[in-house]
Design brief:
nine-stranded mixed β-sheet; 19 strands; 3 domains; Rossmann fold; alpha/beta; 22% strand
Length: 507
């Protein structure tokens, strides 16, 4: 019976048409996905322009030529025409609007959108142009009657992804562009070279908060441009990516100078909107959210502790023996649990594992009790350690190994100190020193804590310098969550260390 029913539906022409339609739509989505990845394109809605950008330009509509070199469907420029009287729109379009895109289909869509605002096709064709503006900058726009205001959502495509998946885009990173890390950075530097006076960019927030990925572009770009205002989104903006973005309003300086940049930002989260003043300094590569880095740099004491991460299968194989340890395999996960097994190791590795029960959770779980931080494997999973049997993934729980061995009391002190200071900096910086992982339905934006950050923060607490009474004092300060007093305490420890070194040097 089932076979006859199935055969009937297969032979039904209408069902066949529907299946083909679904296949065609799926193919279109797949082609669209490939294009997004190939060109780094994430289309912007006109609502973003109207709500966040138009208020900043509305008093200057007749003072500039508004250009988008990566226009897509034109949603960052064409909505200006809504605020121009209908009988003046054609003249305004010809004099004040120029749009470019590398993709022919985007240019055609942009022309159709222009027609919705009353711009005839033959007029739209004059100022909506297909061109690879990353490779060939349209120099003529600088020679028009009015200065240029470039408003754009440039392509985002990290060079690491390009090397693996999109070789054709490597051409943009050669010669004078060598060293830049993303297509959006090429767009910015092209505007700088062409001395465009005003820029409004929708950028990944790694432009402001990133380390090596954006140090070079900030150091090259910001001596020439001020940031007049920023809107930082902590919620999803684009349909097909979780990339955290901001809108930055740049203005070219009269003279190039490496100086501090002060600007006000509006941070927009799920359920909140806050205003914050940022100060970017050349000594910190103009990076925003530097409070954490400044702390770990100022309070770092050349530590006698050696800190390592990960317990690997290779190490286990080299140290087989008779001592049983209960280990959790982070590369084996099913039904919401990691696989746990008993392994036999020699005495040396047994002691190493048993003496180092702390692990770092680098990734927020989304629950308040599962935030990034340092935890004890015995308390969380009732095991001895965390084993990596395949690849080392930075988002897995990662065991911490410290030499020389710390006492149970010292390990607990370190864990509590670390988590208090981490939460303190998350609070005062709104977690900006951490990397946004992805958007979810959690009550806060989930963040990723880097292992280098873990190591730096551990190194601000020189346990080997602490006397018994000093440890008691620190415990009390941690219980009280008195961070300012803890900072004073650490300053005294640093002076103590320097004094010891000075005396040793002069003996």
């Amino acid at each position: 019976m089932k076979k006859r029913v199935l055969k009937k539906y297969i032979n039904d022409e209408k069902i066949g048409e529907k299946i083909q339609y679904v296949r065609d739509i799926s193919s279109l989505f797949e082609i669209d996905k490939i294009k997004r990845r190939e060109f780094g394109i994430h289309l912007t809605s006109s609502e973003i322009f109207k709500k966040y950008i138009f208020p900043e330009i509305k008093n200057f509509l007749y003072n500039y030529i508004f250009v988008d070199l990566f226009c897509g469907e034109g949603n960052l420029i064409l909505p200006i025409l809504e605020f121009i009287p209908e009988n003046e729109r054609i003249e305004y379009f010809l004099k004040h609007i120029y749009l470019f895109d590398i993709q022919k289909d985007m240019v055609e869509k942009c022309k159709l959108n222009a027609e919705k605002y009353g711009i005839p096709e033959e007029i739209a064709e004059k100022n909506i142009i297909q061109k690879d503006t990353l490779k060939n900058y349209p120099i003529f726009i600088k020679n028009l009657e009015l200065p240029v205001w470039h408003i754009t959502n440039p392509p985002y495509l990290y060079i690491g992804y390009i090397v693996k998946n999109s070789q054709r885009n490597l051409k943009y990173f050669t010669s004078k562009n060598s060293g830049y890390q993303d297509l959006y950075q090429i767009a910015l530097i092209n505007d700088l070279r062409n001395k465009i006076p005003k820029l409004t960019y929708i950028l990944p927030t790694n432009f402001l908060f990133g380390f090596s990925v954006s140090n070079k572009i900030r150091m090259d770009f910001l001596p020439f441009y001020d940031i007049k205002k920023a809107i930082i989104f902590e919620s999803k903006v684009f349909e097909y990516t979780g990339t955290n973005v901001c809108i930055l309003f740049f203005e070219r300086k009269k003279t190039s100078i490496k100086e501090d940049i002060h600007f006000q930002a509006i941070k927009i989260g799920k359920n909140k909107e806050i205003k914050k003043i940022y100060i970017l300094t050349p000594k910190n590569f103009y990076r925003a959210g530097n409070e954490f880095e400044e702390f770990v740099s100022s309070y770092n004491i050349k530590n006698e502790l050696e800190i390592e991460f990960y317990l690997t299968l290779e190490e286990l194989e080299k140290n087989k023996g008779e001592y049983p340890v209960k280990l959790m395999d982070v590369n084996s996960f099913s039904n919401g649990c990691y696989k746990v097994g008993i392994y036999k190791v020699n005495q040396l590795l047994y002691k190493k594992i048993k003496n180092n029960p702390l692990f770092v959770r680098t990734l927020d779980t989304g629950k308040w009790e599962g935030r990034a931080g340092i935890y004890d494997v015995r308390e969380i999973w009732d095991i001895d350690g965390i084993l990596v049997t395949k690849e080392k993934y930075r988002t897995h729980p990662i065991q911490i190994f410290i030499e020389p061995n710390l006492s149970e009391e010292d390990l607990n002190l370190l864990k509590n100190y670390f988590n208090l200071m981490l939460e303190y900096f998350r609070d005062i910086t709104d977690s900006e020193f951490l990397t946004t992982f992805k958007y979810s339905n959690s009550t806060y934006v989930r963040k990723y804590l880097g292992l280098s950050q873990v190591k730096k923060l551990i190194e601000t607490l020189p346990l080997y310098l602490l006397e018994k009474e000093e440890k008691k004092i620190l415990k009390i300060l941690i219980l009280q969550k008195n961070v300012e007093k803890i900072k004073e305490f650490l300053s005294q420890l640093k002076e103590k260390k320097e004094s010891i070194l000075f005396n040793l040097k002069n003996e």
